[in-house]
């Protein structure tokens, strides 16, 4: 079975290489060969590919990559095949230790509280407070930052490591700019992000949650925002995994959204945004992020078909997670430029 899986992956890698998209969609094309526990969800496929790409980029070593893929349910043989297909199946010394970097953002786990003091919005960021609120399947946790006189309210959706201190600062930065913000912990049903001492286990736990649960929790977050900032227009912003969730929220039909900003997030299959026509969408992509960028034309087609106000932009010369100031791919100049554009977008469509 393992040899058959490797042959299947290699065949798909050859096809992808000829198309210039090697490693993009490989897991999705051969998902039934990878996880013996059952079919892989779209988000789990996305995370598996991300781990392989982070390894190929030298963010952590092969042993750590195999461990993370194993937590997702891949067998050792299938994980090795995926790493080979993504172009870096050597056990060379990584640029960071195996425990240092978390999949999804290139962010060292130990650096979650030590982002750049000069990151966009940090100079006026407000503190957040831990809150709980009612969700569809139990109590949800989150980080709340209240603007003194809110111009709008924003739902913040985290990367694939859960509600980290970095994401809390995003809520605080937005509040400092006048937008009361709630960063919802989508691991609440599993005890919350804080219950996971290993960020890779938090990622694996997120990968096992059904997509419909995420949508229901996000909708509960929108309701909570409306309670805490009555009368304010509501927006959503998310990064990486969270960027994909912004797309999912739009695809679910959320008429309460007035603005949405997905950063380099995977687009749901057959996305239809007809139920979210009120939202003005600023879609941010990283120029070097070929895997996520492959869905950019489809995203624009769906936005146009729904008759939405939108702007799709690719930031040249930067890679996936360029906005995360705790990560190896952070680009301060690009982050500052795009943050200014986000503020303009929210100013236009939230107030």
Report on this structure.
This protein has 351 residues and is an alpha/beta fold. The protein is built from twelve helices and ten strands. The protein has helices at residues 2-19, 26-29, 42-56, 62-71, 76-85, 165-176, 199-207, 211-228, 241-252, 290-293, 296-305, 332-349, and strands at residues 101-102, 107-108, 129-135, 138-145, 152-157, 179-185, 234-239, 257-263, 280-286, 310-315. The chain has an eight-stranded mixed beta sheet with strand order 3-4-6-5-7-8-9-10, sandwiched between helices. Strands 1-2 form a two-stranded antiparallel sheet. Strand 1 and strand 2 (107-108) form a beta hairpin. Helix 1 runs parallel beside helix 5 (76-85) and helix 3 runs antiparallel to helix 4. The longest helix has 18 residues, at 2-19. The chain is globular. It starts with a helix and ends with a helix. Mean pLDDT is 86; it is low at 1-21, 29-33 and 88-114.
């Amino acid at each position: 079975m393992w040899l058959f899986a490797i042959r299947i992956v290699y065949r798909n890698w050859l096809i992808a290489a000829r198309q210039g998209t090697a490693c993009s969609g490989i897991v999705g094309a051969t998902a039934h060969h990878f996880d013996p526990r059952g079919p892989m969800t779209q988000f789990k496929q996305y995370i598996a590919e991300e781990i392989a790409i982070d390894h190929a980029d030298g963010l952590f070593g092969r042993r750590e990559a195999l461990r993370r893929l194993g937590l997702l349910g891949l067998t050792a043989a299938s994980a090795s095949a995926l790493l080979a297909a993504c172009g870096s199946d050597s056990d060379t010394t990584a640029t960071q230790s195996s425990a240092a970097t978390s999949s999804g953002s290139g962010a060292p786990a130990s650096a979650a509280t030590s982002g750049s003091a000069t990151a966009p919005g940090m100079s006026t960021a407000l503190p957040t407070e831990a809150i709980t609120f009612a969700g569809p399947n139990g109590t949800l946790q989150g980080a709340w930052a209240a603007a003194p006189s809110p111009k709008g309210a924003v739902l913040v959706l985290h990367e694939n490591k859960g509600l980290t201190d970095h994401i809390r600062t995003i809520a605080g930065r937005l509040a400092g700019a006048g937008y009361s913000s709630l960063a919802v912990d989508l691991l609440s049903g599993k005890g919350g992000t804080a219950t996971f001492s290993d960020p890779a286990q938090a990622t694996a736990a997120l990968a096992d949650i059904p997509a419909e649960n995420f949508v229901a929790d996000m909708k509960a977050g929108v309701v909570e925002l409306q309670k805490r900032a009555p009368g304010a227009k509501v927006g959503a912003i998310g990064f990486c995994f969270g960027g994909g969730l912004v797309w999912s929220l739009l695809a679910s039909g959320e008429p309460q959204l007035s603005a949405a900003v997905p950063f380099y997030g995977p687009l749901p299959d057959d996305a239809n945004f007809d139920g979210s026509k009120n939202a003005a969408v600023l879609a941010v992509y990283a120029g070097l992020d070929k895997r996520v960028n492959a869905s950019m034309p489809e995203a624009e087609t769906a936005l146009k078909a729904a008759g939405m106000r939108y702007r799709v932009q690719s930031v040249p010369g930067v890679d996936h997670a360029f906005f995360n100031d705790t990560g190896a791919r952070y680009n301060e100049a690009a982050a500052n430029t795009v943050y200014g554009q986000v503020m303009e977008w929210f100013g236009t469509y939230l107030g």
